[in-house]
Amino acid sequence: MRIPLILREEKFYELFVDDARNVLAGARLLEQFFRNYPERERIASQLRDTEHAGDQISHDIGHKLERTFVTPFDREDIHALISGLDDIIDFIEEVADTCILDNIEEPTPYAVAQSEIIVRQCEQLAEGLGQLRTFKNLDRYWIEVHRLENEGDRVVRQAMAELFKNGQDPLEVIKWKDVYSLLEKAIDACEDAANVIERIVVKHA
Fold it and tell me: pTM for the full model?
C-alpha cells in the first residue's frame, strides 16, 4: 500500500483547531477550579487529562510534519505554534497543581479574574485558528489577546499590592506570589501564541 508523500494541508489546520480547543477546555476548567474550589481535586484531575490530550495532538502534528513535504506554512512556525499552545496548557495545569500542593485554602478574586482573562484569550486563539487557512481578517484576534494581556498586567499588579498591604502571613504571601506568577505566565503564553499567529499571517499577506 502506497503512503502518500503529501498529506492534505487541511488536516494540519484541523489539528491546530483541535489543539486550540483543547487549550480552551483547559482554561475553562481552570476557571471552574477557582469558582468551585471544594471540587478542586476532581477538576485538577480533569486538567491533567486535558494536558495529556494536548500532548497527543502535538505528537500527531509532529508525525504529520515528518511525513509531509509541502506544509501549509513554515515548519518553524508550525513548531512555534504547537509549542506556544503547549505552554499555555502546561502553565494552566501547574496553577491547579500548585494550589493543591501548597494547600491554598480558598481562591482570591484576583485569581478568578486572571483565570477569566485566560479563558477569553483562549477563545480568541481558538476562533483565530479556525480562520487561519484564509490568512485574512485575523488581526482582530491577536489585537484582543494583546489587550487582554494588558488587562492581566493590571490585575496582577493589584493582586501583588493587596498581598503586601495588610500584613498577611509571610507564608501565604509566598504561596500566592507563586500562583499569581503562574497565572501571569499563562496569560503571557497566550500572547506569545497570538504573536506566532500574527507572524504566520504577515508572511502570507
Answer: 0.93
